[in-house]
């Protein structure tokens, strides 16, 4: 299978359950879910949150489908408020910043270039919306792709109380 055999479409509220399932699978693949009960709780909470965020525009998503219409990959952005900051071209920008989230590819489609196609759609949308940046937290598996398409590592760290 090749990435050329996929169609990319914009996610709708009707896709909330699929995106939530991808979200849970993504965290499971990274070893970040403690139990099946937590996975189920996360899925249920994510469906409700995604449905609402897709409705109010604070979430935008893209889904890649194979020739039969089966969703094989997804990616989205959670558009979050942000304080004023300096842009790369020396301006001061204020306003929201899209955070890439829920990036997941069905196992049989990994390594086929589908991720690159979907991220191109996400990046094109971000450009057209006028955002001065897009940020993400890369998994070890995703880091090489993100670097190849122009994302640069930053100094973000995490503390858990």
Explain the overall architecture.
- The longest helix has 21 residues, at 36-56.
- The relative contact order is 0.16.
- Helices cover 35% and strands 22% of the residues.
- The protein has a five-stranded mixed β-sheet, sandwiched between helices. A two-stranded antiparallel sheet has the order 4-5.
- The N and C termini lie far apart (44 Å).
- The protein has 161 residues and is α+β, with helices and mostly antiparallel strands.
- Helix 1 packs across helix 2.
- The chain is built from four helices and seven strands, in the order βααβββββαβα.
Relevant terms:
161 residues; alpha+beta; five-stranded mixed sheet; two-stranded antiparallel ribbon; 4 helices; globular
Write the layout of secondary structure elements.
Layout: E1 7-10, H1 16-29, H2 36-56, E2 59-65, E3 71-80, E4 85-86, E5 92-93, E6 97-105, H3 114-129, E7 135-136, H4 143-148
Parallel strand pairs: 6-7
Antiparallel strand pairs: 1-2, 2-3, 3-6, 4-5
Helix pairs in contact: 1-2
pLDDT under 50 segments (min length 5)?
none
Radius of gyration: 16 Å
Order of helices and strands: EHHEEEEEHEH
Share of β-strand residues: 15-25%
Largest sheet composition: 5 strands, mixed
How many strand elements? 7
From the spread of the alpha carbons, the general shape counts as: globular
Q: Kindly, what is the distance between the CA atoms of the first and last residues, rounded to a whole number of angstroms?
A: 44 Å
Average of per-residue pLDDT values: 92
The strand line-up of the biggest sheet is 1-2-3-6-7
Helical stretch tally: 4
């Amino acid at each position: 299978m090749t990435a050329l055999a996929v169609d990319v479409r914009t996610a709708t509220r009707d896709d909330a359950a699929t995106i939530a399932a991808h979200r849970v699978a993504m965290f499971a693949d990274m070893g970040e879910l403690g139990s099946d009960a937590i996975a189920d709780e996360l899925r249920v909470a994510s469906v409700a949150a995604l449905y609402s965020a897709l409705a109010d525009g604070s979430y935008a998503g893209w889904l890649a489908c194979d020739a039969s219409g089966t969703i094989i990959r997804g990616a989205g952005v959670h558009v979050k408020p942000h304080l004023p900051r300096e842009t790369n071209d020396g301006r001061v920008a204020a306003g929201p910043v899209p955070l890439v989230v829920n990036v997941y590819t069905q196992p049989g489609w990994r390594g086929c270039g589908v991720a690159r196609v979907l991220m191109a759609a996400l990046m094109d949308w971000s450009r057209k919306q006028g955002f001065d940046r897009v940020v993400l937290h890369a998994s070890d598996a995703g880091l090489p792709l993100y670097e190849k398409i122009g994302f640069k590592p930053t100094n973000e760290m995490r503390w858990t109380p």
